[in-house]
Design goal:
heterodimer, A: about 350 residues, alpha/beta, Rossmann fold, 4-stranded parallel sheet, globular, B: about 325 residues, alpha+beta, 60s Ribosomal Protein L30, Chain: A, Phosphoribosyl-aminoimidazole Synthetase, Chain A, domain 2, 7-stranded mixed sheet, 9 helices
């Protein structure tokens, strides 16, 4: 596969492992922000070859994991309403709210459909004219342009039974919230490759400057990951802190202006609730009043219920990189991918799921 | 029969049922035992011990590239027999049809079953059909049970895997699972994705004939995929399994589709592949025997049994790292981004 195989080539990757060893000259703690990075790091067995002194902590970049329990409760409540069909990305199906999940709602007759693109949800609306189809917008900048395009398509085609419940989140606002906590000692960020393809590598510069934080935007294949870690170790070792982009085949400095423009047409920044992190100012997107006809919260008059985080669950701290999954008393005992208690165990990109799946004996 | 639908009458046991039997089932599946239409089939005995298995098939979509629910129902049960070293002898066929199911589709499936039986040399000797009201089923569900005979000297079981044994997979992995998932999702991907459904009893017979004492375990990695099946073997044998990432045979188009959907080939179902655990010193010979069969041309040695922690499966990555391979939890769900 072009752009994948060449970056997985072991002949290319093996020397990078040695280079990483040489690059680490003092203890360092790096956060991989994105859930796909967490997964890719495990999948490649990178944790097992990390040089002494280098520590990787997982950040809040799994969209399912940071969806608040109150949002989940609202989703489930909505799915239970007659005449409503909710369309979701697959990860969301088993995420627990305060009481049950969408999977349980589906088993009692709620209409829950797994789709692969928001456009599929629009097709559902066209094919089920007697129902209101609600697409649950859960994701970062990578999914927002597709949702914006779908809302525009719904408007242009005069489809009135399609709405979106936006819990879309943005980077790097939550990182700012995290980094202002002195307890979180992070020397560098492995910045999310896909999100950066939209917001641009330059979006990380203010963080790099303000917190003297090494920032490297990296891809997801073996060589991408190793190269990113090498550059982070070098920056931290030499003190020459900046934003570097080692994923130029997908990411540039400015980002995707066309996507940003389309998103800005439909959405405006808003305060957003994050699981484990609480409400963070201007860290999410809501649908502009001009498009209120496509806003599920307006059309269905939804007020977010008070929600309880599951007892004993450390997902909040795990999302902040303050605890590892193994420090959670529920991890791999009461909380497993088959029976998740916290959201980090549900998504394949969740930190707990990754630890459980790939690293439980490490 | 064009345009005709299955009615509740077809499952009543009355005239409509009789017609279905003679116009469809006997037309395509006829043999001496089935033809008698008695309450049960009386079968001649064979030497060896009896193997007996059953499986139900509810796949959606019922037609997919590379096969259909009928073919799957024949191959799946034949393979379950073969995985214990049995020579498949005959099958039963139970159908649960939803009222309104298209007769043309039923005929297509019965023809497919008859072809699969003929090719495999394993007949359907008894059967049953029920019809449930519309909405109480999903088009067609099939159950097949199978009987086979195991020669006295053959002992194939997950618990027989031994330290030092090699793990061979008889071909590329994930083909069936990804084909079904992409069809279900309505995703049209470029490249030829098709199910690998096929019977493996000939391959197994060849293997047991050439290396009778060296084949310790045979398993078909269907639901849960290679990852889950190997975890079960590791658990049953009390050993560890070490896999080599780069040795896994995966078609580029399967890998590409998995990347797109956020799935791992190791967890996808296969319907025409077996995992053979064979004596380490005979691994190359076993591989050559498998590769010489039409079903096993793309076979590969993918790992070995070791004395590590019981029940643990580890995969060595190309950069010299390692990661644990756990069994599948729940359904494989596609990820968001």
């Amino acid at each position: 596969m072009k752009y994948l195989d060449e970056y997985r080539d072991s002949a290319l990757a093996k020397p990078l492992v040695l280079e990483l060893r040489r690059a680490v000259t003092k203890p360092l703690r790096v956060m991989e922000v994105c859930g796909s990075h967490t997964m890719a790091i495990f999948r490649n067995g990178i944790r097992s070859i990390l040089p002494d002194g280098m520590q990787l902590v997982s950040g809040p970049g799994c969209p399912v994991c940071v969806t608040s329990a109150s949002h989940m409760d609202a989703f489930i409540g909505m799915a239970d309403r007659p005449g409503v069909r909710v369309a979701i990305f697959g990860d969301l199906f088993r995420v627990p709210g305060s009481h049950g999940s969408l999977s349980e709602a589906s088993s009692r007759g709620a209409k829950v459909e797994i789709v692969y693109s928001p456009m599929d949800a629009l097709d559902l609306a066209i094919n089920n004219p007697g129902e209101l189809v609600v697409f649950l917008g859960v994701g970062f900048e990578t999914t927002t342009p597709g949702i914006a395009a779908t809302i525009l398509a719904a408007k242009n085609n005069n489809i009135k039974n399609f709405v979106v419940f936006s819990t879309q989140k943005t980077m790097p606002a939550p990182m700012e919230a995290l980094l202002s906590d002195p307890a979180l000692q992070i020397d560098g960020l492995l910045c999310p490759g896909h999100v950066s393809s939209i917001i641009g590598a330059g979006a990380w510069e203010p963080l790099a400057k303000k917190y003297h934080l090494a920032c490297v935007v990296g891809g997801f294949e073996t060589a991408d990951l190793l190269k990113s870690l090498i550059l982070l170790a070098r920056q931290i070792g030499t003190g020459n802190i900046k934003v570097e982009n080692v994923y130029p085949r997908a990411v540039d400095w400015e980002g995707n202006q066309r996507a940003a423009k389309m998103v800005a047409e439909i959405f405006e920044p808003a305060d957003m609730d994050w699981r484990g992190l609480g409400r963070i100012p201007m860290s999410g997107l809501k649908i502009r009043e001009k498009y209120a006809a496509f806003d599920a919260e307006v059309r269905l008059d939804i007020t977010l219920p008070e929600a309880q985080e599951p007892k004993g669950c450390l997902c909040g701290n795990i999302l902040k990189g303050m605890n590892t999954p193994r420090e959670c008393p529920l991890f791999s005992s009461r909380c497993t991918p088959s029976n998740p208690i916290g959201p980090c165990m549900v998504s394949s990109e969740g930190t707990c799921a990754a630890y459980h799946k790939y690293g439980q004996d490490e | 029969m064009s345009g005709k639908k299955i009615l509740l009458d077809h499952g009543s046991g009355g005239l409509a049922s009789q017609q279905l039997i003679s116009d469809l089932f006997l037309k395509y599946l006829d043999n001496r035992t089935l033809h008698s239409l008695e309450d049960s089939a009386i079968l001649d005995n064979k030497p060896g011990r009896l193997a007996f298995t059953t499986d139900s098939y509810v796949v959606d979509p019922i037609f997919f590239p590379g096969g259909d629910i009928g073919k799957l129902a024949v191959h799946g049960t034949i393979n379950d027999l073969a995985m214990r070293g049995a020579v498949p002898y005959c099958l039963s066929l139970g159908l649960i049809l939803e009222e309104g199911f298209a007769m043309d589709d039923l005929e297509r499936i019965i023809i497919s079953i008859s072809e699969a039986c003929r090719e495999a040399g394993v007949p359907v000797v008894t059967g049953d059909t029920k019809v449930v009201p519309k909405g109480k089923g999903d088009k067609i569900f099939i159950n097949t049970s199978g009987i086979g005979f195991v020669a006295e000297h053959i002992d194939i079981s997950s618990k027989n895997a031994k330290e030092g044994d090699a793990v061979i997979v008889s071909g590329t992995i994930g083909d069936h699972g990804i084909t079904i998932m992409t069809r279900r999702a309505g995703i049209a991907l470029q490249g030829d994705l098709h199910s690998d459904t096929m019977p493996l009893h000939t391959l197994v017979a060849k293997l047991l004939q050439e290396l009778p004492g060296d084949i310790h375990t045979l398993r078909d990695p269907t639901r849960g995929g290679v990852a889950t099946t190997l975890n079960e073997i590791a658990e049953s044998s009390g050993l560890s399994i070490e896999l080599c990432d780069e040795a896994l045979p995966i078609r580029p188009q399967v890998r590409a589709a998995c990347e797109l959907l956020g799935l791992e080939p190791l967890y996808l179902a296969n319907e025409g592949k077996c995992l053979a655990i064979v004596s380490g010193d005979q691994a190359q010979k076993a591989l050559a025997v498998i590769q010489a069969t039409p079903e096993g041309r793309e076979a590969a040695i993918i790992g070995k049994l070791t004395a590590g922690k019981a029940g643990r499966v580890v995969i060595n990555t190309p950069i010299g790292g390692a990661r644990v391979v756990t069994p599948l939890h729940g359904l494989p769900l596609p990820r968001i981004c």
